[in-house]
Design a protein that fits this description.
The complex is a heterodimer.
Chain A: E1 2-11, E2 14-24, E3 29-33, H1 40-47, E4 55-60, E5 63-64, H2 69-75, E6 76-79, H3 91-101, H4 106-120, H5 135-146, E7 153-157, H6 165-179, E8 183-188, H7 191-197, E9 200-205, E10 208-214, H8 215-221, E11 226-233, H9 237-245, E12 250-259, E13 262-269, H10 276-286, E14 289-296, H11 300-308
Parallel strand pairs in A: 3-8, 3-9, 6-7, 7-8
Antiparallel strand pairs in A: 1-2, 1-4, 4-5, 9-10, 11-13, 11-14, 12-13
Helix pairs in contact in A: 3-4, 4-5
Chain B: H1 2-17, H2 20-43, H3 49-67, H4 69-77, H5 79-84, H6 90-109, H7 113-122, H8 127-153, H9 158-178, H10 184-193, H11 195-203, H12 209-233
Helix pairs in contact in B: 1-6, 2-3, 3-8, 3-9, 3-11, 6-8, 6-12, 8-9, 8-11, 8-12, 9-10, 11-12
The chains are: A alpha/beta, B mainly alpha.
Chain lengths: 311, 234
């Protein structure tokens, strides 16, 4: 559906995006992840034909952004970060203007605006001026703007930034709902969001792709270190530590909390083998009262932090 | 084409849903009305030459005030990003905004037709120069709108856009008066560059293709420059 080839963008001498290449398949929800200033927004702006790349190309279907920018713009609905809408306009007038520019038939404009108002939950603000809206409502109007002509591709730049937790869940639900039929690219720096909504993830740092793949794949590939959380009713951490260190896969025993006869600790383990039976064996043999025992799966967060760490 | 019209409609409507239009039109009418009629009865002649001779100076600061927000505000609020990612070309955007500003200038002139009607009751008004004057005024309004649009495209600050646009318009209006110390031959050349000179020719009622071409080429040069600035931004 979308093919990005060696995309590069310089702002003066600073390189914002450095030879990025990836593909997006039809019907996929792709998450563009990265710390602030990684080049997510710049990539999206080039994809939506707002910026011209310094070199490289983007192909959407068979159109190239260099020659058929107008055709590509017709296929893409875009919600920029912080939804910069015209502040003086009334929401309804604004959507009407977008519908006209998008070339909807006169007959279907009213019904389309009504349908979008329902999907995005903006019925009660239709007759308010945009500068009176709260951030969350602006974001929703922006979403309605992006979906006006039922585009095949939706590009959403940090769609949940600055929203309250309820609104975040609502917007995510909307994205999931429309993601069943459309190709969506969304950028975010919230990892749980990417995990919850995206089929595939591309992690960008300093303008380069550092990892790409399905969420599970990324987790699997990322290495073999993991952490075990254990909580035991006991008084002496030394004793626990010494017995557990005998298990070969355990590299370290880290005390987290020691209160009221309950000791919480982490086991740093390495290796591909599942070490849980051995640890349980140790606990059983010593007759400790086990309160909690849990293997922390490698979250995206740890992967992300490793890949994008400074230096 | 339809998108040029859509943007034109949106911008023109934008003037009238905010108080800008009403304030600017009021100031324009008060200024022209006051300065024109304060000397009109002293001369005792049924003509509108006094009104038209005021227009270049008054347009020089009124029109940039109308156009200053066209691009600057979009850059400042970021709405430009939304506009440019809609299926419109930069030409649609520039032409739509330019036509809206030029149409606004024409709308601003409409109430002054009552001056002409009023004067025609007082004496024998020669309608030729009046019609020529209005044609010239609309052309000059369009040319100054193009200048203002260009000034607005170079900055995200509306005040800078206003001052830059006003300076350019004043320069075109006053170029022959500022350079009064030059020798006659050089002065004639600069006079030909000035908007005032061409506007005066038209408002005598003589519609000469040179004067029309002058205003049209100013529009063209300014809109083309705007396009270059806009292209440079992406």
């Amino acid at each position: 559906m979308i093919k990005i080839e060696n995309l590069t963008k310089y702002y003066g001498k600073t390189c914002a995006v450095d030879e990025i290449s990836f593909e997006i398949r039809k019907g996929e929800v792709l998450g563009l992840l990265g710390p602030n200033g990684a080049g997510k927004t710049t990539t999206m702006r080039m994809l939506t034909c707002f910026l011209q790349p310094s070199s490289g190309d983007i192909k959407v279907k068979d159109f190239s952004i260099e020659e058929n920018a107008l055709e590509i713009k017709k296929l893409i609905g875009y919600l920029p970060e912080s939804a910069p809408l015209y502040p003086d306009m009334i929401v309804y007038d604004y959507l009407r203007f977008i519908a006209d520019v998008r070339g909807l038939d006169k007959g279907s404009i009213a019904s389309q605006i009504k349908a979008l108002a329902g999907t995005c939950g903006i019925n009660e603000v239709m007759h308010k001026s945009i500068n009176e809206l709260s951030k969350g409502y602006k974001q929703r109007v922006g979403l309605a703007h992006a979906m006006m002509n039922d585009p095949e591709i939706l590009v959403l730049d940090e769609p949940t930034s600055g929203l309250d937790p309820n609104q975040i869940v609502e917007i995510r639900d909307i994205i999931k709902k429309i993601g069943k039929e459309k190709t969506i690219i969304l950028s975010t720096h919230i990892l749980s969001e990417a995990e919850a909504t995206c089929d595939r993830i591309v992690i960008i740092n300093k303008g380069r792709i550092v990892a790409a793949g399905a969420t599970d794949e990324l987790k699997r590939e990322a290495g073999s270190d993991y952490i075990m959380q254990v909580s035991v009713k006991h008084n002496n951490f030394e004793e626990i530590s010494n017995s557990l260190r005998n298990v070969t896969e355990v590299n370290d025993v880290i005390l987290v909390n020691d209160e009221n006869g309950t000791i919480d600790f982490h086991l740093a383990c390495s290796g591909k083998k599942d070490v849980r039976p051995e640890i349980y064996e140790v606990i059983k043999n010593n007759n400790w009262i086990l309160l909690e025992f849990h293997m922390e799966s490698r979250t995206l967060e740890t992967i992300f932090r490793e890949l994008t760490r400074e230096g | 084409m339809t998108n040029t019209l859509n943007i034109f409609r949106k911008e023109l409507k934008g003037y009238f849903i905010s108080p800008i239009a009403y304030i600017v039109i009021s100031i324009f009418l008060i200024l022209t009305g006051w300065f024109f009629f304060s000397t009109f009865f002293l001369y005792g002649q049924a003509e509108m030459r006094g009104f038209f001779s005021l227009l270049p100076i008054i347009f020089s600061f009124i029109i940039p005030a109308v156009t200053m927000r066209l691009f600057s505000e979009e850059f400042n609020t970021g709405s430009y990003e939304l506009l440019l990612t809609l299926p419109v070309s930069s030409l649609n955007i520039i032409l739509g905004k330019f036509l809206a500003a030029a149409a606004f200038a024409a709308i601003m002139l409409l109430p002054t037709i009552f001056y002409a009607i009023f004067i025609s009751f007082l004496g024998d008004l020669d309608w030729g120069p009046v019609i020529g004057g209005y044609i010239g005024a609309v052309l000059m309004g369009a040319a100054f709108s193009a200048i203002g649009l260009f000034a607005s495209s170079i900055t995200r600050n509306q005040i800078i856009a206003f001052i830059a646009g006003m300076s350019l318009c004043f320069l075109l209006t006053l170029v022959d008066k500022i350079l009064f110390f030059l020798p006659e031959s050089a002065l004639n050349f600069f006079q030909f560059l000035g908007a005032d000179f061409h506007f005066k020719n038209i408002s005598k009622g003589v519609i000469d293709s040179r004067d029309l071409l002058y205003f049209i080429s100013i529009c063209f040069v300014m809109l083309y420059s705007t396009n270059l600035v806009i292209q440079e931004k992406s």
